[in-house]
Amino acid sequence: MAYTDAVRSRFRKILEEVREAGLSKDERYIRSEQGVKIMVEYPRGSEPREVLNFCANNYLGLSSHPKVVEAAQTGLRERGYGMSSVRFICGTQDIHRDLERKMAEFLGKEDAILFASCFDANAAVFEVLFGEEDVIISDRLIHASLIDGIRLCSAKRDSYKNANMKHLERKLQLWKEKARHICIVTDGVFSMDGILAPLDEIAALAEEYGAIVLVDDSHATGFMGKTGRGVHEHCGVVDKIDIITTTLGKALGGASGGVIAGPKEVIEMMRNRGRPYLFSNSVPPPIVYGALEVIDLLNETTELRDRLEENAKRFRTSMAEAGFNLVPGETPIIPVMLGDAKLANDMARELLEKGIYVIGFSHPVVPMGKARIRVQLSAAHTNEDIDHAVAAFIEVGKKLEVID
Amino acid sequence: MSSEMRDKILEFIRDEYLDDEDQVIDEGTSLITSGIVDSFSMVSLKNFLEDEYKISLSDEEASAEAFNTLNSILKLVRTKLGSE
Ligand SMILES: Cc1ncc(COP(=O)(O)O)c(C=O)c1O
Fold it and tell me: Is A159 touching B (CB cutoff 8 A)?
């Protein structure tokens, strides 16, 4: 036992600072399955009540979809609960490989490989592919898991201002003679702003300067683009994005799991050298069955992503008409800009009182002075749900003098 | 010399990190603690200083403290130039 009072008091002091800065992570208990209508216990210990959920990444409403739940139950019955093994020892069922093939096909890539999460996929991908002679040039707003993945790799690093193509081109010029490979890294959708990376322009620059492009499409796979393949489809560059990483933990059923899709050599390198792949347990069979069902559903019809697109439009239009300041965009992530951190938190709290579950984001998650409420639409929201949310926003917005 | 160095580095920082043309920064503006430069994008500032002044900065030297203000950056570069 060396967990001394000194150690304890140091940790306590840090936690105290976190609390004082108002940055404590305060989890709210949901007493129902995930969905558009959920039962939330808040404040802690109070009677759970039904609210409309506008803050999940449940973009297609598949988290508790009857067909997905049923498929997972079948998986549980037919293939058991867990694998108790990494993939290469005795953790690979034929269904794991089926899902990898289906994901590759869905994303328009040669092959794909499954991870326990997209965080793991991003932690694996750079270290395997790049070394000291290479440079990774990343957008300044990429997800934390990409940053950590890049940090794990010995390649040189550089970055460009968010979605700023002039700046990216300057970086490409700077590095083109100085590196063996150049890899451009971006999120497909930037989840705090709900804006897209200009993948068509990135692909064109990559071609001109001979760079590899890696996109994390976690907030797009399943619904962006005409058939929901992602931002690369939306931008018309399915063939020009080399590597895609994405998650099964958002639109695609929301359970867990990550995917890397790309050229077959890249995938084979991951299978042989990806540390989170080699040293972490296999995705459980019920989740694999569920994800297979999700991909089948999305291949059958674009109904869900079409509905999501309409829902996002409906919300954006009504909120803009009401006078709210939104970040313009084409995604179902819609930030309502408020500026002040306290205002964002007050507004989110008042909206929850009115049965609308949204979250306020402030510094350091978003830049100082750019606090906001982030609203996320789902295909499972009805028109009434959306109108109800807008009405609540208007009422609270007037009360807090955000709108006239 | 020194005001030339100051102007040059300031121009690089503006160009490399600021989105908003009107944002005012000077020798004392905290770059890191204010989030203008984060620990990840700091590397381009390091590359720039190394290239421009033909110096080599170790990871310890290129610390968040040393890069926090233009003043501390100038001090670091001058120390390096003096010692090389
Ligand atoms: C862009 C992006 N990449 C990766 C992840 C991590 O995905 P997972 O939950 O599968 O680890 C997230 C989720 O927060 C994300 O938003």
Answer: yes
Tell me yes or no: is domain A301-404 CATH 2.40.50.100. no
**Which band of pLDDT confidence, cut at 50, 70 and 90, is reported for residue B84?**
low
Out of 3.40.640.10, 3.30.310.50, 3.90.1150.10, 1.10.10.10, which CATH number does the structure's domain A66-300 have?
Answer: 3.40.640.10
Q: Which of A117, A143, A216, A245 to mutate to test the pocket of ligand 1 (most atoms within 8 A of CB)?
A: A143
Answer whether A365 touches B (CB < 8 Å): no
The residue range of the domain holding B38 is 2-81
Show me where the domains of chain A are located. Answer: 66-300, 301-404
* Domain count along chain B: 1
ipTM: 0.86
Chain B: give the shortest CA distance to residue A156, in Å: 9
8 A C-beta contact, residue A43 and residue A234: no
**Interval A91-104 mean pLDDT:** 98
Instruction: Give the mean pLDDT of chain A.
Output: 97
Evaluate if residue A42 carries a pLDDT over 80.
yes
Q: Which of B33, B47, B50, B59 to mutate to test the interface with A (most CBs of A within 10 A)?
A: B47
Q: Is there a shared CATH topology between the A66-300 domain and the A301-404 domain?
A: no
Q: What CATH number is attached to the domain comprising B11?
A: 1.10.1200.10
Task: Considering only the beta carbons, identify the residue of B17, B35, B43 that sits closest to A158.
Answer: B43
Residues near ligand 1 (Cβ within 6 A): A 117-119, 122, 143, 145, 187, 191, 216, 218-219, 247, 249, 258
